[in-house]
Amino acid sequence: MNSNEIFSAAALVDNAEARRWGIGFIDGSIPGYALLIGDDVVAAAALLADLKQRKILAFVTDESLCAKLQGSGQSLGWESGLVPFDLPTALGFIARVAQIFGGADETDDVLNYARQRLRGFALLLGEPTSERLAEAQSALLLGCPLLITAELPLSEIVQLGVEERGLQIHVPIPELPVAYSPDFSGQVMRGENCGACLTGVELTVTGQDVVDGRVNLIGSDLDVVTQGEQPFALLIEVGGRAMQPDFESVLERQIEAILNDIDGVVHRGQRAIVTLSISQKSIKNGLRLRHLGQILHARLRNEFGNILSRIQINIFTEPAQVQVIRERAQAIYEKRDQRLGNLNDEGTDTFYTCNLCQTIAAGHLCVISPERPGTCGAVDWMDARAAVSIRPVGQNKAVKKERLLDAKLGQWESVNQMVAQESGGARTAYSLYSLMQDPGSACGDFDCITAMLPLSNGVMVVGHGYDGMTPSGMDWSMLYEMVGAGTPVPGFMGHSKRALHRQKFIAAEGGWRRIVWMNHALREELRPALESLAAAAGISGFVDLIATEQNALTEDEIAALLEAAGHPALSMEPMI
Ligand code: SF4
User: Fold this and answer.
1) How many CB atoms lie within 10 A of CB 329?
2) Would you list the domain boundaries of the chain?
3) Atom of ligand 1 at shortest range from CA of 442
4) N or C terminus: fewer CB in 10 A for the chain?
5) Pick from 509, 491, 495: nearest CA to 408
């Protein structure tokens, strides 16, 4: 068949039928079509369930296959999604739909529209005879690649067609034993209601041999893991023709918003500091970890179908396996963090906003620059840029930094306008580099809290996991309550450990030079990064000037140590 013959067939198509069924391709309810060429009924039977499940329209082009299918009890017709059209009629139908909905008459325009918007593939069932191959050749005019059942595993063939043509298949949200709705996204879990508290790590990677929709659980499920803190790891493996490694962290950060919509599930944190609390009531009602996996699969497939075609979810509660994933994840997080290299804020004209966490903290948003990762530390400038390239109207927005208002604070008029828009008016000014004036807010997902210590003319930084008292007179949980509600609190700020690696961190107040106290474990963990910042300024031994809980727990004790050691904060201008 050539294009003239296809258009002659198109002229014979019933217009009402083309409109009625063609609209499905346009509104996405029909993701694509398959042309079944050949008469191998065994192969056809194996493929039809897969096509049906994915709502792919199948044209059965061989008369004898139609008869065999009907003989085996299959009903044919539009309603069943199995349409008995010979090949010219099927191709003519697609061309007619392209003419109607593409609004074009020229042959090339119609064919181009059909190739781009009405996506299909040809399945050759049985022997690839020269006659069948010639038929399949004509389907190429409409962009349909040929997949031959005699050459490919039957279990893979539809998936290959879907990936080859980039069909976006809608995955229904699975039925759960509890409710699932955005109304639950801000729910709070009180200790006495919690049936399982899992603490662990999550990682998304591009995998090999990913089986779409498979959920693996390695270890005990919620009916066994019920009391006390239990370790867990969530490994999401993804694949797709348009998938890129830069997208992995973007997908990973969606986990919180997706799981928090389940009644009785509260997810907090990111990367290796995740807490997953599940209520006694939901466990009693039958909620299990595999349900969480199924929800993640469906939502990620539906929301990121433009880049993903396969998602496999692996959940580990077996401690040794959790440790293996934790180590693997740590190495990957480090690699991700190194991608920014020496890129600095002066080297780009575009920053990004992120409002993903407004589901748990209304009004909260982050402004992300090369030197300022999001509060959670799991979204940096590269991640936000990748997220915008996947979904230009998603939770991340690009903003050109224009009309500088204050270089020291890091405020631009264009950024402030975007902040006002993305926070729903909750904020009108945002300083990228200040703790004291219009600082960033925090949503509850962060590693560290920095707080001013007015008598020491400096700041303290306390890390997640330190449960002692701090010189501010508050411990982690008191400080967390104060800064983690999404509202900026001048003088206090939740942030990631990564933020402390950059010169721009609270640069308006003097940056790292202001740090006079850290809890010991955090100080030692960040020693290399802080030493390197200080060394770049010609200062050696700076980290040992920072007091810890081991030598000071009050501002008076800190002041005495600063004085004795000659800490640089003493000679800086007053913070307030
Ligand atoms: S903390 Fe900020 S950057 Fe991280 S996901 Fe939430 S809004 Fe985005």
Assistant:
1) 22
2) 3-165, 182-319, 345-571
3) 1
4) C
5) 509
In whole angstroms, what is the distance from residue 20 CA to residue 24 CA?
Answer: 8
Is ligand 1 within 6 A of the CB of residue 498? Answer: no
Quick check: do 3-165 and 182-319 share a fold?
A: no
Name the residue of 336, 355, 366, 430 to mutate for ligand 1: max ligand atoms within 8 A of Cβ: 366
CA distance 354 to 422: 8
Instruction: Identify the CATH assignment for 3-165 out of 3.40.30.10, 3.40.50.2030, 3.40.50.280, 3.30.230.10.
Output: 3.40.50.2030
**pLDDT, tens digit, for every residue of 373-385?**
999 999 999 999 9
CA 119 to chain centre: 26
CB 440 within 8 A of CB 433: no
Half-sphere exposure (CA, 13 Å, Cβ side) for 124?
21
Cα torsion 91, 94, 100, 104: sign: negative
Residue 509 has pLDDT above 70, yes or no: yes
Q: Say if residue 105's pLDDT is above 90.
A: no
> Does 354 sit in the ligand 1 pocket, CB within 6 Å?
yes
* For the CA of 375, the nearest atom of ligand 1: 1
What does the alpha-carbon distance between residue 63 and residue 575 come to, in Å, rounded to a whole number? Answer: 84
DSSP, residue by residue, 77-94: BTTTTEE---HHHHHHHH
**Is pLDDT larger for residue 368 or for residue 223?**
368
Could you say which DSSP state residue 171 is in? P
* Cα distances (Å, whole numbers) of residue 207 to 158, 169, 240, 313: 20, 20, 10, 11
Residue 46 has pLDDT above 70, yes or no: yes
| Rounded Cα–Cα distance for residues 565 and 547 (Å) | 10
For the chain, give the percent of residues with pLDDT over 90. 87
Q: Residues 214-273: pLDDT tens digits? A: 999 999 999 886 566 799 999 999 999 889 999 999 999 999 999 999 999 999 999 999
338-355 confidence digits (pLDDT tens)? 998 889 999 999 999 999
The rounded mean pLDDT for the chain is: 94
Class of domain 345-571 as given by CATH: alpha beta
- Establish whether residue 379 lines the binding site of ligand 1, counting it when its CB lies within 6 angstroms of any ligand atom: yes
* Residues 6+ positions from 93 with CB-CB distance below 8 Å: 9, 10, 13, 17, 18, 59, 85
Instruction: Evaluate: CB of 380 within 6 angstroms of ligand 1.
Output: no
Mean pLDDT of 142-152: 93
Give the domain 182-319 fold.
3.30.1650
Strands (E) across 240-330 are located at 265-268, 274-279, 310-316
Residue 445 Cβ < 6 Å to ligand 1: yes
Q: What pLDDT is stored for residue 55 in this prediction? A: 93
The predicted structure's pLDDT at residue 4:
86
Residue minimizing CA distance to atom 3 of ligand 1? 374
d(CA 193, CA 266): 12
Give me the mean pLDDT over the 496-517 stretch: 96
Region 5-9: what's the mean pLDDT?
91
pLDDT at 393: 81
Cα–Cα dist 471/469, whole Å: 7
Confidence band for 562, pLDDT divided at 50, 70 and 90: very high
